[in-house]
Design brief:
This protein is α/β, with parallel strands linked by helices and 430 residues long. Helix content is 30%, strand content 25%. Helix 5 packs across helix 6 and helix 8 runs parallel beside helix 10. It is globular, with a radius of gyration of 23 Å. It binds ligand LLP.
């Protein structure tokens, strides 16, 4: 579900008129709904309750302190991919002992920091990395809890840049080599403690079948590892897709009713529970996008319009530096005027101010014929939106707001130009 809807001709997030937020703090601004996030999280937990299931929110999807703190209040763990993300979790009041640490390129300072903070587990991606963690743990006089990410070689049917579970990808260890690697760890790496097994086959999966295929492929390995090494968990990763095209037009419930083939939390849970329950092991899920994606819209203002020979362009004040998904993954985000229009749809490109032809949020899109000065909402912007933003073209990072019922709170103020250059200096000055 999500909490964005028109009321009396104005787009609202929960009980707040988005036009009011834009009028007070300007645009671009990311607006998150507390209700959507907490409800989706509850749905996740409820759906997986027949299992000993634990949610580790994938911090990379949206790492704002207030969003992480909201997750902390709900008692979830975290899937992190850097020392920086671990720091953010702790800074937001989170518990390091509920963190799993993934990623192919962990550095020595990051590994030391994670060991000092006593994280739950390193999810490792190569033998080299395991040997490095073993060495560092030995020096520190501790045992490092580890799991290895197994690559099951399953096609996730998603965009090529966000598929991770085939042997063409840099991630994980081939399923054909995983047993040998665990034997090597047990025999040769005394400062490691084998705690689990991990996998993650890709992101924005809209079908359930690849998840089922991967679980069926890896379950026999999990069984063996329970017997051989007493592993206590299997993390099956994240990847559950959201609805990008159709979420506001018809309202999500209606959309789902018309698209029964599209993954839902309930459908996902119902398909995997029978496969996982017999293993009798703790299951970790690492959703990122599914918890924050539909929970946010980015507000942006139409600056200009231009009718050319071939196309009509609407220039907005948000660029690929604010949301890079259309440029990088051919991502689709619905764009709606905050003040409702009727019967004036045109086809246009919605483009940003960045000096790149790839700087668009939508191309050849049927959209309301908005005029300069009007505020627009770019939907489903809560995952990999702000967290992938940059200051390219020396554009300050956008503001972020959390809506809670009738109230809204700034959870990140707009960056200043001074903040953009903080840390820069002339040679010899730093
Ligand atoms: N676990 C691991 C090990 C991951 O690598 C990821 C995402 C997740 C969990 C969370 O996946 P999710 O539930 O959010 O699909 N920037 C791209 C998505 C990159 C995903 C990277 N890994 C995008 O905007 O589509």
């Amino acid at each position: 579900m999500h909490s964005f809807a028109y009321k009396n001709g104005s787009l609202h997030c929960e009980g707040v008129n988005l036009a009011d937020i834009a009028a007070v703090i300007g645009t671009p601004t990311f607006v998150y709904s507390k209700k959507t996030i907490t409800e989706d999280l509850s749905e996740f937990r409820e759906a997986l309750s027949p299992l000993d299931a634990h949610v580790a929110y994938a911090v990379k999807a949206c790492s704002n302190k207030a969003i992480l703190n909201l997750m902390v209040q709900q008692g979830v763990g975290f899937d992190i991919v850097s020392g920086g993300e671990l720091w953010r979790v702790i800074n937001a009041g989170g518990d390091a002992t509920l963190c799993t640490y993934a990623g192919v390129g962990k550095t020595e300072p990051e590994i030391r920091y994670a060991l000092e903070q006593n994280i739950y587990c390193f999810n490792c991606e190569s033998e080299n990395e395991l040997r490095e963690i073993n060495r560092i743990a030995g020096e520190m006089g501790v045992h490092a809890p580890i799991a290895v990410r197994v690559n099951p070689h399953v096609d996730a049917h998603t965009h090529k840049y966000i598929t991770t579970g085939t042997n063409e990808n840099k991630f994980g260890v081939d399923i054909t080599r995983i047993e040998e690697l665990y034997a090597t760890i047990a025999a040769e790496m005394p400062h490691l403690r084998i705690r689990g097994l991990q996998m993650h086959i890709g992101s924005q999966l809209t079908e359930i079948r690849p998840f089922v295929e991967a679980i069926e492929k890896v379950a026999p390995v999990v069984r063996k590892f329970i017997d051989l090494y007493g592993i206590e968990f299997w993390s099956i990763g994240g990847g559950i897709g959201i609805v990008y095209d159709g979420c506001l037009a018809s309202g999500l419930s209606a959309w789902w009713a018309e698209h029964p083939e599209h993954i839902t939390i309930r459908g996902y849970a119902d398909a995997i529970i029978p496969l996982l329950k017999p293993l009798g092991i703790k299951i970790i899920v690492e959703p990122g996008r599914r918890l924050t994606g539909n929970a946010c819209a980015m507000l942006t203002t139409c600056l200009y319009e231009k009718r050319g020979e071939a196309k009509t362009f609407k220039m907005i004040d948000a660029g690929m530096n604010d949301i890079i998904r259309p440029a990088l993954y051919e991502g689709y985000h619905e764009i709606w005027p905050v003040t409702e229009h009727r019967d004036d749809t045109i086809v246009a490109d919605i483009v940003g101010p960045i000096c790149e032809s790839g700087d668009f949020q939508a191309q050849n899109r049927a959209i309301a014929d908005v005029k300069p000065g009007e505020v627009l909402a770019e939907m489903s912007a809560g995952a990999y939106g702000f967290s992938m933003a940059s200051t390219y073209n020396s554009r300050p990072l956008a503001a972020e707001v959390l809506v809670d019922g009738e109230k809204w709170h700034i959870i990140r103020r707009r960056q200043t130009l001074e903040e953009i250059v903080t840390g820069e200096c002339l040679p010899g000055e730093c």
